[in-house]
Amino acid sequence: MLDAASASLAGLEPFLMYFSVAIVLMLLFMRIYTWITPHHEWDLIRDKNPAAAIAFGGALIGFSLPLSSAITQSMFLLDCVIWGAVALVIQLLTFLVVRLVLKSLSERIIKGEIAAGIFTAACAIAVGIINAACMTY
Predict the structure, then answer these.
(1) Which one of 11, 59, 63, 92 has the fewest beta carbons within 10 angstroms of its own beta carbon?
(2) Closest Cα to residue 113, out of 38, 47, 55, 43?
């Protein structure tokens, strides 16, 4: 019984390493994402703006999907960091493209237009799914 518990806990160190890297990448993504958006997500979410919460939540999900793929597919921790960074860049580019396609996106989110938030979130999640699938080799 003790050997089984000890064998189980042998994976704790890699788990903590990958989990820590994932949290750091997620925080980095959140920080950069909120820098590149003209609107202020945290203020809008605090003010109960559903469009901002939906768009930002979709961006987080869209980033976490390929990040989880990077974790499961990576050969070593640095590999995970590199592919996590690729996922981060792709999600940021996704927002910039959606902003070009959907005119006045930030203004619409600031006004609480749920349709703009849902479309932004759906694009982020869709690109995240494709991004994650492309990371499987």
Answers:
(1) 11
(2) 55
**Within a domain: 80:** yes
DSSP state of 8: H
> E-assigned strands of 42-114?
none
| Residue 1 DSSP symbol | -
52-76 pLDDT, tens digit each: 999 999 999 999 999 999 999 998 9
- d(CA 87, CA 64) in angstroms, rounded, equals 9
Query: Within a domain: residue 5?
Result: no
Residues 91-133 pLDDT 10s = 999 999 999 999 899 999 999 999 999 999 999 999 999 999 9
Domains contained in the chain, number: 1
Distance CA 91, CA 46 (A): 23
Range of the domain at 94: 14-134
User: 3 lies in a domain?
Assistant: no
Long-range contacts of 3-9 (CB under 8 A, 24+ apart): none
Please give the Cα distance from 53 to 45 (Å, whole number): 6
